[in-house]
Amino acid sequence: MRRIPWTLVVFIAALAVPFLGSRFYTFVASDIVILSLFAMSLNLLLGYTGLVSFGHAAYFGIGAYTCALLMKSANAPFLPSLLAAGLVAGAFALLFGFFCVRLTRIYFAMLTLAFAQIVWAICFKWNDVTGGEQGLPNVPYPDMAWMGAAPILGNFRVGDHFYLSALTIVALCFAALRRIVDSPFGRVLTVIRDNPERAQFIGVNVRAYQLAAFVVAGFFAGISGGLFGIFNRGVFPDFAFWTKSAEPLIMTILGGMGSFWGPAVGAAAFIVLNQQITSFTEYWPLTMGTVLIVLLFVFPGGIAGTLTAAVARLRVRPKAATPPASAPHMVKPNA
Amino acid sequence: MLEVRGVSKRFDGFTAVDRVDFSIGRGEIAAVIGPNGAGKSTFFNLITGHLRPDAGRIVLKQRDITGAPPHRICLMGMGRSFQRTNIFPKLTVFENVQAAFITHRRRGTNFWDLSDRLYRAETNALLASLGLADKADALSGALSHGNQKQVELGIALACDPEILLLDEPTAGMSAAETRETIHLIERIAGERGLTLLFTEHDMEVVFSIAQKIAVLHQGRLIAEGRPEAVQQNADVRRVYLGERH
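^ inputs. structure came back:
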């Protein structure tokens, strides 16, 4: 049996969403695509470097404000604004991360949270620039006239056009992230995650690598935030609030931080569950909490981890006489 | 090769290492022995930069490394293994050793190449020389204790050290495994012209390969010299006999 190129299958399926012709499906798909980038960027820290950040929303928010301000106030074009969102978020990640990586474990997590709350407070109070509590409403959609003129795409709504742009950008970001985690740099990150003490004694400057991972994660969170601001048609201080930092954490745990695509799967599950549950009960957080508790105890590898393990088990069964070299339940991110 | 001058380390008023002077020449094989709690591990941690000495100097290849961070000391050619096995448990045996090749040759800043393709030949050759070739794809955390110790030795050797510090390389091993490991270490040290500094409980092992022995007792160096001389030393005899009864 040949391997099915699942990544390609999912990408093509995602490209087909606008053909369903439903505004709602495109809306949900956009939400999933953009927030999965947010969750995947966090997992570079969580799953690959072993750093728990409680303040990842800071970079999401900074990216969202940067992109929105450039496009709305400065009338800058979309792609340069989005790139700037990533770069500015990355620059702040460099600044904040410089202090954060000096601490470990819970102290690291608390400091990331503190910096995120500072960002939130600034967004909330700096009325002249960020619009304060009111945020920045009416962020314009990028100019996508060429898509309207294209043969098949011409029939789609502007929301569909934006969805396709966002999907392409996010897919490129995923490709870059994949490349990064498969690179020697990515290998050093997993080495640090596994055993930071030992890493020092093979010549790794642990803090420098942790900081680099923090900046890369901040960059992609910024891109995600920039896209989300446009998708949401407005940017608000809540984007940098601590509850927003919890979202990618929950998505990652839901999907499984042990596998590369886990956070994206988690983002999809989180958003679909949110939509479904809120349609017939107001106790969405209660339900979500219950789902998480069950998951943590029954499927510690998350959705993706459990599926991978199940597939591995099925593959092994035919030749049950020879036990697998490595235990199938211990899924590595680079597997 | 390595010179330690008057190094001391205190923990909350307790002196773990007390004004120790010690040196080891290029290509020498030396052992540090002493009863439990004599300060052997602390001494190693001071040399490798894991701990910062309160007093004294440490000089590696004529360069002062006192207080330098471990990663820099490692890149200068010092490898080490730990008393309690210290590997990367969620990576395969191959990845453990390959990671050390990558970091030590400063390829870790490469964001773009595929790490899987790097140093394959070197890693496989090293694994073969350690007798780990058939376990290359096993998760290192799932291996037996003895195999994990070998992986750790592999990690240390992949850093292409000129001086290797082994903290009880045979701790927890059976007599047969111990013999095998010691032969392996002796062979590799010979092949590579390594300077070797190790601690060991098994006196038979120590006296079979060490060219020089240093004896620590309560943080102090009470004897240093050739094995025969150390064996005859009255202080050493008292410490060791005293420990037994």
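Residues 148 and 155 of chain A are 7 Å apart (CA to CA). The interface with chain B takes residues 179-180, 182-188, 190-191, 193-195, 197-206, 209, 325-327, 330, 332 of chain A (CB under 8 Å).
thumbs up if we can close this ticket
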